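Repro case for the chain-ordering regression, as requested:
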Amino acid sequence: MSEPDPARIQDRKLRLRQVFLDQIPERLANIRAQLAALRPGIEQPEPLSLLHRTFHTLKGSSLSFDLEAIGKAADTAERLAREALDGQTPVDQDMLARLDEQTQRLEQLTREAAEEIASPSSPLPSAPRAEHTALGPRTQRLIYLCDDDPAIVQELSTQLASFGYQVTAFASIERLQAAATARAPDAMVLDIVFPEGHTAGPKMLRRLKSITGHPIPTVFISNRNDFAARLSAVRAGGSAYCLKPVRTVELIEVLDQLTAIAPPEPFHILIVDDEAQVAELHAAILEEAGMIVRQVHDPSDILHQLAHFQADLVLMDLYMPGCSGPELAQLLRQIPGYLGLPIIYLSSETDIDRQFAALSVGADGFLSKPVEPARLVAQVRLRAERMRTLRSLMVRDSLTGLFNHKTILEFLATSLSAARRAHEPLSFAMLDLDHFKMVNDRHGHAAGDQVLMALGRLLRQHLRDGDLVGRYGGEEFAVVLSGANAETAKQRLDALREHFGRAVFRADEGVGFQASFSAGIATFPTFADAASLQEAADQALYQAKKQGRNRIQIAQAPDASDASSG
Amino acid sequence: MHILIVDDDPLFGALVTAILEDAGHGCRVMTDAREALAVIRSGEHVVDSVVSDLHMPGLDGLGLLRALREADIGLPFILLTAEDAATLNERIADCADVALVAKDQLLEQALPRALATFQG
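-- result from build under test --
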């Protein structure tokens, strides 16, 4: 072994420190959720001891990673929690406020530490980025919240935090403006009416935009449902408007969209033109606008191409040898899967009557050659976008935004053939919320919906890009994990199960509660086709439930199941 | 030395690994004290000493220490804690070959030093 290099440990430690720092927001979000579950005036040793332990761990790790300020703040918070736990200080509003204050301080210090590390003045270790993403959570989105009603601030901050947002609350628009000028958040949630005026919120947003020069995505929340208030919000650049009392589910949905990390998938356009150079020109224009384009120069090749290229729109020449545009359009319309596929003709045909005749067989538009690039892009984008929306309405579940039952099964079939071709494993998992009926009965349907949404969101955000998640029905979800064998699938789902178990939900009456799920996994090639995968996953799920829930069960091979059961 | 690190926080386990590997030790991290206990008792792996966190869900560091001593396994044991050392010292007074190391800025120096005392 070589002599230890003193620089190496520092480098390694710095990398770990960065990973730790990246993790703190998630730990703080957990603390927020734990705080939200505390009620003044009653004995609650379990949540208090959990809170105490979380602060304690944070303290130890922070100090060891040389994050002294955070360590000290965590120490103060730990002492507070200890006092409450030992019954020295009653858990009253004052205690809750002090705990809240310490948590805010921790949040503030964490941001400062992150900025300090990000600034070029401190020596950044040559950290491989993969290590960060493997260990650290996804970057938390920072939300500034401003309302002059402290009850609403309290309520919304805890709710947003329990959905993984990092929330900083402001009681006055002045302080919000100062903070947002210093550091722009990912989004803001802002009241309309303040003591300063009945549209003070929108006015501040306009000022802010003129100061910083760039808009911050903002959701307005208000009691006002009149035209003037809504118009002032639109004019100030508000992205959404939620009426009070704010439904958390709605607000989260909006914030998720506003702060989406991944840019929307680019449009896929298929160009059919026998003249290669013309096709090339149009492809270049559309690609320039960020679309993905495939060209077909021989119309008879179109079915093959469409089968492998998920086109959002087909752009075709009107006159081609062997097969005309209208003939080709009609041919496509006779295939059920392509009935709704938008088709735009491109031609030098200037005769209006002939244009109409061409459209009558089911194409969606007509562009004359030579077409202006801006017009081509606008026409294509408009139609492709509408197609996307329509398609997503058909394949997605409205509550969770996940694929619906039918779609996830179609995906299972497609992924399975791909796995078979590539000789790779594939896992199919069925998930079911534990005691969901009890959640609904005890806490109401709104709380039940919140749990469904949270699980949907967790699955969507934490599984890999190639994985597919669907809502199977009721409280059942299905996941297709391509390339994952049973063990890998179990590890990934177990991590999610633990993550989910830590979330604290809140019912209308303010009661905090937790939820869990069970899952069954069946893997190809142990199970050879879609039907047996589904059945085996379902059986395994049943086993997981029978063995006490909140666990993941792997389906055994059909011949081995007799030996292992019992 | 072959050191078994027990910490429910994998990140902290990684930090301890970094420190100890740098001091020339071989390390293995486990996040569950019960599993760690099983591994040590099985005797299938060489373990020369244990470095364990105090606070862990389920079986904690003290519990692990006691279970080992009850099984007559006298491995050198280091407890890592962010707790005040004075009160803890009382609780481990009856156990031999145990050292307390604080989770703080000095961990990097204190931990290899504590292990060295067992080696010497």
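Ordering looks correct now. Chain B touches chain A at residues 9-12, 14-15, 18-19, 22-24, 55, 80-83, 103-105, 107-108 (CB under 8 Å).
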